[in-house]
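sanity check this fold:
=====
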Amino acid sequence: MEHLIFDVTGSYDANVMKGFLGEATRIDLTDAEGVNLYCDDAARERLAGVIAEHERSGIRLLDSGNTHYLSALLAEGTSEDFALVLFDHHTDCKAAMFDMLSCGSWVRNLQKENPRCKQTILIGPPESAFRELEAFLAEREEALPEGTVCITEEDLLERGAEAVAEAAAQIRYPIYLSVDKDILTTDTVRTNWDQGKISLSLLLECLRALECGFRDKTFPRRLLALDICGLLPVREGAGPYEEEGYETDRSIAELFLH
């Protein structure tokens, strides 16, 4: 298993490589062009080549939410059918300009382009975001793919991990897990996107609802990989990574490092 750090903004403290992930591999993308918010064709080709050089399992830190689309690229090499479980304040299911891969469209791209993605569990966007998504799809005479489950922020705040446990019981494939820290309150951590109302303790409870299933040998709910994004870049006012995001990332990752 290889843990990866995709450093796009140069915001990761050098000590993180010797921190909770052990000897993680840092992938330096600070000179990459065409990667901020949108991933153009040239950048996609470069990123695909870089990703192909590394293992597809493990924990991956993906820098800010602007490059959350890396999850779609990382999932391209998955050798078995999987269920995407996404914790995020946004649906990431909108269409991007010219259908380009982007941080706001990558789930939609993955569902359309990756036949290995059999189920999608979207956890954390507010009800209003799901209504907007329904209207967006209706205009195009489309619907969410079969097997998509949506859990609103309001439901999480009301029922907690029970809502996630109910959805997890429907999963019939190994899990590809992606977490955007913008689901969390600004009191917990700062990101460069508008943020939700979920506390870190609630997020960890919800993740444990998934994690417990990984130990059930009669159920195929094992973890294929974990992506974490939502770092606040230094150039956007953050302090050192260890102060702004280290502890949050560590708390999430340590649930699955075993």
